């Protein structure tokens, strides 16, 4: 009888210990699974970013970027667009800037340091308000207008934060040929030999207007951006 009781008690202890061990293993597996899920949520790559860039040559404009899975989430095509005026006493400039290219991230989660290569186009609609014309011996002042296009190859170094709200900073240089002088067509007024005011078309050569960040060898790139990623 005593042997039966001892054996029964021993079996009961083994069963209880087995149930406790099974619960502990189950809890550990469940906790590990939740940790892995949380980790995946934290490090989930946000593929698309849209926002605003402020600086040179953008001044203020729209920006969009998409992180692709190429080379381990390191290649990110982008496009920037802005339209803005730069007016002075001598000229009125209507500028439109567009740039497209690709960023290469050093990390594999679409954030941090990157280098960028892009192609920029600065379209300028320039109005000279009061320039001197001389045409066929007639002299006078008038208004001239010209449209020009400046193309650059841009090399940049940048850094971008992660999260739903991102911030980025870029510096670099756009290599291109910027004209020092431009030929302007316009219309001017003058007095003829009888003292009567006449109007005529004329052509003059003027210096290319001063634009922030633009010189005769290229375009300075320096901007700050922010927006949302998803």
Describe this structure in words.
- The structure is a single chain.
- By secondary structure, the protein is an alpha+beta fold.
- It has 2 domains: 1-44; 45-229, Porin, CATH 2.40.160.
- 18% of the residues lie in helices and 60% in strands.
- The protein is built from 1 helix and 11 strands, in the order αβββββββββββ.
- It has one helix at residues 2-42, and strands spanning 48-56, 59-66, 75-87, 91-105, 112-135, 138-160, 165-175, 181-191, 197-207, 214-215, 218-229.
- It has an 8-stranded antiparallel β-barrel with strand order 1-2-3-4-5-6-7-11.
- The chain is elongated.
- The chain starts with a helix and ends with a strand.
- Mean pLDDT is 83; it is low at 1-18 and 29-42.
Question: Topology of this protein?
Answer:
Elements: H1 2-42, E1 48-56, E2 59-66, E3 75-87, E4 91-105, E5 112-135, E6 138-160, E7 165-175, E8 181-191, E9 197-207, E10 214-215, E11 218-229
Antiparallel strand pairs: 1-2, 1-11, 2-3, 3-4, 4-5, 5-6, 6-7, 6-8, 7-11, 8-9, 10-11
Keywords:
single chain, about 230 residues, alpha+beta, Porin, 2 domains, eight-stranded antiparallel beta barrel, 11 strands, about 20% helix, about 60% strand, elongated, disordered N terminus
Summarize the structure.
With 230 residues, this protein is α+β, with helices and mostly antiparallel strands. The protein has one helix at residues 2-42; strands at residues 48-56, 59-66, 75-87, 91-105, 112-135, 138-160, 165-175, 181-191, 197-207, 214-215, 218-229. It is elongated.
């Amino acid at each position: 009888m005593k042997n039966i009781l001892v054996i029964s008690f021993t079996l009961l202890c083994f069963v209880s210990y087995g149930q406790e061990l099974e619960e502990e293993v189950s809890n550990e597996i469940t906790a590990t699974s939740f940790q892995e899920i949380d980790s995946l949520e934290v490090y989930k790559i946000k593929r698309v970013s849209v926002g605003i860039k402020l600086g040179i040559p953008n001044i203020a404009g729209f920006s969009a970027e998409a992180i692709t899975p190429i080379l381990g989430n390191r290649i990110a095509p982008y496009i920037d667009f802005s339209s803005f005026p730069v007016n002075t006493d001598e000229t009125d400039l209507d500028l439109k800037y567009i740039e497209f290219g690709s960023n290469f991230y050093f990390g594999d989660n679409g954030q941090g340091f990157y280098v960028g290569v892009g192609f920029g186009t600065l379209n300028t609609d320039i109005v000279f308000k009061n320039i001197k014309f001389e045409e066929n011996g007639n002299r006078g002042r008038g208004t001239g207008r010209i449209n020009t296009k400046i193309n650059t190859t841009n090399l940049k170094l940048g850094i971008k934060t992660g999260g739903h709200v991102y911030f980025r900073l870029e510096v670099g240089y756009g290599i291109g040929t910027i004209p020092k002088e431009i030929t302007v067509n316009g219309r001017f007024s003058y007095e003829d030999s009888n003292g009567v005011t006449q109007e005529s078309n004329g052509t003059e050569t003027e210096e290319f207007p001063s634009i922030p960040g633009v010189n005769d060898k290229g375009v300075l790139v320096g901007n700050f951006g922010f927006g949302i990623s998803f």
